[in-house]
Design brief:
Oligomer: single chain
Order of helices and strands: HEEEEEE
Number of helices: 1
Largest sheet: 5 strands, mixed, barrel
Strand content: 35-45%
Helix content: 10-25%
Amino acid sequence: MKRMMVMILVAALGAVSGHAAKPGRDIIRDAGALWGREGAMVTIEGTVAREIWQHMVAPPKGYGHETYFDMGTFQIVIYSKDQIECDGTVRATGTVVRIEGSSKNPRRKEACTEYHVAVDSWECLK
């Protein structure tokens, strides 16, 4: 009984202090889940793209390397301080960045929006 009360108290304190598990810290494997999460810290998994799609590019200051990154059925651009060279799956943690620009299609009047990630740490998974 005492142990159960301690566990409940610890969980409650963690939730109040912001240390409880947060949905933003789950591993994201589909780029569509980045939509609308500008400024959020996320962990993503995917692979370095072999085929590069056309994207807007706007590297944040201090992130000198761009990597085209396949996640699910989508591709995004991730920015890092070091070149990411992995065969296979990459797990990366960083901040979601919103990129907005005009369409290259002259008939399309609305702005185009993409979500990229400024990566602070990454690892190659086996």
